[in-house]
Predict the structure.
Amino acid sequence: MQQTRSIGYDSASATLEVVFKSGHTYQYTGVPAEVHDKFMAAPSHGKYFHAHVKDRYPTSQVA
């Protein structure tokens, strides 16, 4: 399971940005603010990411 280094969210564009410990950065578009809030509050970011973000939103690798 990938571990996150940082998580950011832009509410104006509903874009979630995740930087993984590997150094890869991905942006997920169309992510509701509620999903970001629950992601941040989750006891395990990795488990939440895989269950609620990965493969559910349009994704682009930015770095």
About this structure: DSSP finds two helices and four strands in the chain.
